[in-house]
Every structure is written in C-alpha cells, then in structure tokens.
Write a structure and sequence with these properties.
The complex is a heterodimer. Chain A has a single domain, classed as Arc Repressor Mutant, subunit A (Orthogonal Bundle), CATH 1.10.10. Chain A is built from 5 helices and 2 strands. Chain A has a two-stranded antiparallel sheet with strand order 1-2. The relative contact order of chain A is 0.18. By secondary structure, chain B is an alpha/beta fold. Chain B folds into 3 domains: 176 residues, FAD/NAD(P)-binding domain, CATH 3.50.50; 145 residues, FAD/NAD(P)-binding domain, CATH 3.50.50.60; 85 residues, no CATH class. Chain B is built from 9 helices and 24 strands. In chain B, the strands form 8 sheets. A 5-stranded parallel sheet of chain B has the order 5-2-1-9-20, covered by helices on one side. Classes of the chains: A mainly alpha, B alpha/beta. The interface between A and B is medium-sized, with 18 and 21 residues.
C-alpha cells in the first residue's frame, strides 16, 4: 500500500494506484488524477465514472468493459475513445473503486 | 403434501443436483412430505465439456464424451425435453415452449453459459469455420480438427475475447497442445503460436500466472496481454485475417482459434428480475441462493459468483446448494458453507499436466494435493496428465451421480500448500 496526497488529503492506494478505501474519494480527486493522465473530463467521462461508483455500491465490484458497453449508455467504441488506456481500469481508478475483477 | 423442485438444465450442475436431491429425499423422507424432482433441458445430449479441448487434436472419441442426459439421472427423476420460454418469479412458474407451465416450490437455474458469437463484429462473418474457429462447442471443435490437420505452417492465433469464460485455462491448454501437435507433425518451426488475452497476464491469479507465463515462454509461444478484441476480419486483402483491438492494435493470423464472449441462457434475459446484464444469475457466493427470490437457487456456469466457470466448481457447489434447498423447504436457516473451492488439471502437452487448487480467498499455490503426499500442484507431471485422462470416468460414474470423490472434499484443503511469492515461483 502507498499513500498519495490528493486535493490536500492523504489517500491510501494499492500498488496499481487504485483506492484502498472508496469512501475517501471526491470528484475533485478524480479531476486531479485525470489531469495527471492527460485527460480532460467531459460529461461523458463523468457519466461513466458515476456509473462505476453506482455499480460498485450496488454490487461490490466495478463493471467490466462489456457490462459498461451494455449498461452505461456509452458504447464500447466510445468508451475506448474516452479512456484510451482501457475504460474499465481507468474509469475504476478515477472513480476511486477497486480494479474490476473481470474474472477469475 | 408433494413439493416440486424444478431444475432447469441437465448438464453437470443440473444432473448432480437432481441426483443428490433424490438421494437425500430417498433416505430422509418425512412421512408427510413427498418431493418430485423435474429436470428440463432443450435437448438430450450431455457433453463432457473438458473433452472439447482434445477434439481438434484427434484425441477424443465422440461415443465416449456425448451421452444421453436422461441416462445420467436416477429413473425416479422426471426429464422433460423442451425449450424454456421464461421463468415467472411472481407466480413460481416456469413457462416452457408451447405455453406449457410448470409450477415449483424450489427452482434451480443450471442452464450454464452460452457462446455469444454475435456480440463480436466479424466473428461469424467471412472465414468463420474456414480460418476462424472456436473449440468451445462440438461443431467448432470438430471443424477445427480438419483445419489443424491441413495446416502446413503460418500464424496460429489463440484469442480470448473477454472474461468470463468457461474453464479459463482451456485456451492456454490449447496453446500447449498445439505446440505438442505441430512438434509431432515435424512442422513446429513453421508455426508461429500467439496467445492474445484481455487479462494483464497469462492467468488472473498472480502465482499461477507467473508459472503459466514461464511455460508459454519455454514452449516458444508469444503472449499478448490486455488485448480487447473489437473486430475479427476473417479474410483480408493479404489472404489471411487479423483481429482489431479496441485500442487500434491489429494481430494478423492464418488460423485463429477464438474463445467467444459468454452469456447466461437467453430465457434468463426474458425472465423479469432473474438475471444481470449478461444473463447470469446474481447468486449468494456461499449459499447458492439467488438474489432474485428465496426459492430460486443457481449452480455452476449460470451464476455470477466470483470463481471460475468449471465443472469442479459446480461439483463443490453441489453439496452446499442441495443442503440449502432442503433447509429452505424445511423453513430452516441456510448454511453458508461454499468457500469457492475450484481445482483443475492443466494439460501442458507431451503427456504432462499440472494441477491448480484454489478458492475465493486463496490463490493457486504450489505444493501437493490434497495433502503433502498428494499429486504436485502448479508443477508439470505425468501423474497429473493421467489424472486428467482418468477424470472422465470419475465424471460419468461419480460426479454426475452426486457422489463425493474420495479424499476430495467440498472445502479447499490447505495442508499440502506452500505459501510463496511470485518471484520464488519464477525462479
């Protein structure tokens, strides 16, 4: 585990940069992380990030790209345009939730 | 009063569940309670699915691995061959084709996973079953056998479109067997084998992924990770084909073996409140009760529980689900006993295999199974290969009959396992 200061708050992260404690997350932190990634968050990005958090709250795990494409209202193609380095992983990290399990 | 338990699906989960329930009620029947067990399936062909891996290499005999479903069920269990239209949770009723209705006191969803081939653009387009195949169904595996026989060299690409899939190690085993097959044919130096996966390693669990990546490298098989297939182009201008990733990467092939996306059964999607976005049934990972309704349970590949979709998992779930159906019908609290136990043999070619054993909390580790003097874990050996071959007998004669396999309990054994780190395994 590592810690990182975001928007003046010390946040606990796992070695891959995912939040250890999703309750520490704020929208401002998402913006700060996105800026560091070179992403300017649009309404579409937020639609995905908010969907990730809702899914995590309801199901205890973030959705995979396929579920995002079916249920977030954003197509898979568009998801890759929004998050070129992998939508499920990037959006989960920006949403302050653990890496989606995908499968075992 | 007679209670009816309806089981949808006559594959591994449905069959072992029906036979276990039958055995329980035969020996524990209360005088005032009769239980009727009904199994529904759309056909009467039970396929021993692990054999599909061996079909393309000419190593499986259809007479052996496809048998009538009804013959695997105790004769007191009713078998109905019919398509399922939907489940009406509100009325505790299954609607079959032709509007035939079956009411139930408890329902088991055991209809497994299906291949969603239409969800990947181009997969079943030009080249399908010519230079693009899957071995995940009998027709595909059979067609691939001829293609492998005729293959004289070039790029062989094995691709998993996305998880979850049945038997997540099978695509790796396919690579290992292809390495063996072309070596035997004397043309291994003319075949370039590549494994492209959406995962960030050869397997999802770190210690096993390290061992399996090492084996791929040792056998000269290329590994491409984090590749999300967006489109399959079966016959391109160059005369071959290529996969297009959502990130724009392209992987060329002469022969592609694709593991398609998986979904739950279609009727789950037509049943209001039963399934998730992928038609899998949200299920409590310890009790096997669905979250749809208290009298609905699910087993095996049909569930969304976070463990491999594999026959061993289904077998280990069997004990928990049957106990809990009985408890539910007796108005008793359910038991949270299933621990996510999974194990499998991984065929590595040249008459060897390795074995992995894990659960929700413990990843596959080296050591021995089921105790310190058992078969080696995460290590190639001939005894594991023989175990894999012998397992088909165990499947038809013990597992489907709902019998426990001596020495292998539903809970994951810990005695023989070695706790270690990725680095140690790599050395």
């Amino acid at each position: 585990m590592t810690t990182k200061t975001m928007t003046g708050v010390e946040v606990r992260l796992n070695p891959e940069g995912f939040f250890e404690d999703p309750s520490q997350w704020t929208r401002e932190m998402a913006t700060e992380m996105a800026t560091a990634d070179g992403l300017a968050l649009t309404d579409k990005h937020w639609q995905v990030i908010e969907f990730m958090r809702r899914e995590f709250t309801e199901k205890g795990t973030g959705p995979t790209v396929r579920v995002l494409g079916k249920a977030s209202g954003v197509s898979i193609k568009e998801l890759y345009e929004l998050f070129p380095k992998g939508p499920a992983k990037t959006a989960a990290r920006l949403a302050g939730i653990p890496k989606p399990k995908g499968c075992i | 009063m007679t209670k009816r338990i309806v089981i949808l699906g006559g594959g591994t989960g449905g069959t072992l569940c029906a036979n276990r329930l039958h055995r329980h009620y035969r020996s524990h029947r209360a005088d005032d309670q009769r239980v009727e067990i009904v199994v529904v399936d759309q056909d009467n062909h039970h396929v021993y699915q692990p054999a599909l891996l061996f079909v393309p290499f000419g190593l499986a005999n259809r007479q052996e691995f496809v048998r009538p479903r009804v013959a695997q069920l105790h004769h007191d269990i009713e078998f109905i061959e019919a398509s399922i239209d939907r489940v009406d949770l509100h009325r505790d009723t299954v609607v079959l084709e032709g509007d035939r209705e079956l009411t139930y006191d408890a329902l088991v969803i055991a209809t497994g996973a299906m291949l969603a081939v239409d969800e990947t653009p181009g997969l079943t387009g030009p080249g399908w079953n010519e230079n693009v195949f899957t071995f995940y169904d009998l027709a595909g595996a059979t067609a691939l056998e001829s293609a492998l026989d005729a293959f004289e060299g070039g790029k062989l690409l094995v691709n998993v479109v996305d998880m979850p899939i049945k038997c997540p190690v099978a695509p790796l085993e396919f690579c290992f067997l292809a390495d063996w097959f072309f070596t035997e044919r004397g043309i291994r130096d003319k075949v370039d084998i590549t494994y492209a996966t959406p995962l960030d390693g050869a397997f999802t669990k770190p210690v096993a992924a390290a061992t399996l990546s090492g084996l791929l490298a040792e056998k000269g098989i290329n590994l491409i990770t984090e590749f999300n297939t967006g489109e399959v182009v079966g016959n391109d201008a160059a005369g071959g084909g290529h996969l297009v990733g959502y990130d724009g990467r392209e992987i060329p092939f002469d022969l592609a073996v694709v593991v398609p996306l998986h979904s739950g059964a279609d009727y789950v999607g037509r049943s209001t409140g039963l399934g998730d976005e992928l038609n899998f049934v949200p299920t409590d990972p310890h009790t096997m009760q669905s979250s749809a309704k208290g009298n609905v349970f699910a087993i095996g590949d049909a569930t969304n529980v976070p463990i491999s979709k594999a026959g061993s998992v289904t077998h280990f779930e069997g004990e928990a689900i049957v106990g809990n159906i009985v408890r539910y019908l007796n108005h008793e609290p359910l038991d949270e006993s299933y621990d996510g136990h999974a194990n499998c043999f991984i065929e590595t070619g040249f008459g060897k295999a390795l074995m992995i054993d894990f659960n929700y909390d413990t990843e596959p580790l080296p050591g021995h199974f089921p105790t310190a003097v058992g078969v080696p874990l995460l290590k190639e050996s001939r005894v594991n290969h023989l175990g894999k071959l012998m397992f088909q007998w165990v499947y038809w004669h013990a597992l489907l009959q709902g019998r426990d396999i001596p020495g292998i309990g539903a809970d994951m054994p810990e005695h023989g396992k070695t706790t270690t780190t990725n680095e140690e395994v790599l050395v």
